[in-house]
Amino acid sequence: MKIASFNINGIKARLPRLKEWLEETRPTVACLQEIKTMDDGFPADEFEAIGYKAIWHGQKSFNGVAILADGVEPLEIKRGLGIDGPKDGEGEQARYLEAEVNGVRICNLYLPNGNPHPGPKFDYKLAWMDKLRARMHEIWAEEIPAVVLGDFNVIPEDKDVWSVKAMQDDALMQPESRDAYARLLGHGWTDAINTLNPRGGVWTYWDYQAGAWQRDHGFRIDHLLLSPELADRMAAAGVDKEYRGREKASDHTPVWVEIADHS
């Protein structure tokens, strides 16, 4: 079973690239972030045509998450974490979708960026991470195979960024952000990419500006966190880096983990 995450940065703008990736790599489950579309604008028929069934949680112009599964309907468990956005009266943003696919709990998230720091958006980021940690604790207590994955907007360690100095003032690598991320792992969740690449130097995001892709000035903010029940079955994990270099690509690239069948 291959489970992947891809911040697509606008599903309508990237649809050809997204379908290309799905057909070429054929993940069992594909979690998308920043679909940037209302629910009624989600192109479910396009995915159905290539064998994927989908559930999604959309929002006009911003955010939005979706879960695609190859040949089966994802069974929705939960949408949203019950936390309002940073603006008064804004309500909850479309950032979290949880489902079950083939006996595995899939928790897809698009964590708040938090910039500018300090400020209400950074406070919202930390509050959102607290809500996520509470939900992860509930799932951990169920002792089920689960993966919490997506764009966390956190650079966990210095080894996960091309230049510490360039990003030192960014919300993505503030001590509070890193501490909150470390607390997410506290009950025994496994960061799949980090576990298999302990020296770091693996990027999942390259900005569109300043030739970041061409100069390989990237960092790692897309993560796959496995519960103990799933970590024991991890066979491989990686980053589909080449897709960042294609025409009209997202500024993120897919990350994935392969899970072995029960022995």
TrEMBL record:
InterPro entries: AP_endonuc_1, Endo/exonu/phosph_ase_sf, Endo/exonuclease/phosphatase, ExoIII-like. Belongs to the DNA repair enzymes AP/ExoA family. Probably binds two magnesium or manganese ions per subunit. Gene3D superfamilies: Endonuclease/exonuclease/phosphatase. This is Exodeoxyribonuclease III. GO terms for molecular function: double-stranded DNA 3'-5' DNA exonuclease activity; metal ion binding. The record marks 252 as: Interaction with DNA substrate. Its cofactor is Mg(2+); Mn(2+). The record marks 153 as: Transition state stabilizer. Keywords: Hydrolase, Magnesium, Manganese, Metal-binding. The gene is xth. The keyword Metal-binding applies. Mg(2+) binds at residues 7, 34, 151, 153, 251-252. The keyword Transcription does not apply. Residues 4-252 form the Endonuclease/exonuclease/phosphatase domain.
